[in-house]
Specification:
Elements (H helix, E strand, L loop, with lengths): L1 E8 L2 E7 L7 H12 L4 E7 L6 E7 L5 E2 L3 H15 L3 E6 L2 E8 L2 E7 L19 E3 L2 E7 L3 E6 L8 H9 L9 E7 L5 E7 L4 E3 L3 H13 L7 E5 L5 E4 L5 E6 L1 E8 L10
Parallel strand pairs: 2-3, 4-6, 11-12, 13-15
Antiparallel strand pairs: 1-2, 1-18, 3-4, 4-5, 6-7, 7-8, 8-17, 9-10, 10-11, 12-13, 13-14, 15-16, 16-17
């Protein structure tokens, strides 16, 4: 049996497994555990506490068994998990998108998210020039890489979008050779933004998406919808703050611990008598 902890960041829910526990097939394990718990992914963390600040190698397995290079809310939950085991208030996370620093203030966590890129090769998108407000499946889509690819469409009101019905055509569009997360956003009265994201690998809408929040801010900045500083982005699960000051993005918000448990490392095989 493999013990797991459980955390969420603004409703983005993860099971966390210490990578010191041997799981023979992480993809299959994640598929089973995500289906059982209804979580958005399983984070495998290899803690290296001897470093200052402490480090952890972070690998996210999604509900379909695939990996994601980066996950903003997952990284924030991972940082809290590491901090609670080391007493540190800063943590370094080695992700497939690069090494990211996270700083903690109680249960609030701020994580570096790198520099958003509109370069077609980085997203990737099958275009020679950046995709900016191009018509894709009926939406004006801008493509950006925030550790994972996002197709962002600004609409009048995100509540009017049929995410489950409309997002798959964007997520699987031929312009995105590796697929893309489909993110919809609208302006809020206070100058912030509201967000809804259909996540690649989850294959459905999630209560929050950290890379999507950064994508919303990055695209809003490119389109001149705000000044590029700190801005509130509100997915259904709560409020995140994205700061693009200096060109590099940070993502801030709360984290909460939930009840953990145990799961089988591999399904039990029953032999016929």
């Amino acid at each position: 049996m493999i013990p797991y902890d459980r955390y969420h960041g603004t409703g983005n829910d993860f099971a966390i497994v210490d990578a010191a526990n041997y799981v023979p097939d992480r993809a299959a394990f994640a598929e089973r555990l995500c289906a059982r718990l209804g979580v958005d992914g399983v984070l495998f963390l290899a803690l290296e506490a001897a470093f200052t600040p402490p480090r952890a190698v972070m690998t996210l397995r999604q509900p379909d068994g695939s990996t994601a290079d980066m996950c903003g809310n997952g990284a924030r939950c991972a940082a809290r998990w590491v901090a609670e085991r080391t007493g540190a208030d800063s943590v370094m996370l080695d992700t497939q998108a690069g090494t990211r620093r996270a700083d903690l203030d109680g249960t609030d966590v701020t994580v570096e998210m790198g520099v958003p890129s509109f370069d077609p090769a980085d997203v990737p998108v099958s275009r020679d020039a950046p995709m900016v407000e191009e018509s894709v499946a009926g939406f004006a889509v801008t493509a950006v890489d925030t550790g994972v690819p996002h197709a962002v469409a600004f609409v009048d009101d995100v509540d009017d979008v049929d995410v489950d019905g409309d997002a798959p055509a964007v997520r699987h569009h031929e312009a995105f050779p590796q697929g893309a997360n489909a993110t919809f956003a609208s302006r809020a009265d206070d100058g912030g933004f509201r967000q809804r994201t259909f996540e690649r690998g989850v294959e459905g809408e999630t209560q929050s998406c950290g890379t999507g929040a950064v994508a919303v801010a990055a695209v809003a900045d490119r389109l001149g919808l705000y000044d590029g500083g700190a801005v509130a982005v509100r997915p259904p699960g709560g409020e995140l703050v994205v700061d693009l000051s200096g060109g590099r993005a940070t993502l801030s918000g709360p984290t909460e611990q939930e009840l953990g448990g145990e799961a089988e490392a591999a399904p039990t095989r029953h032999l016929d008598a």
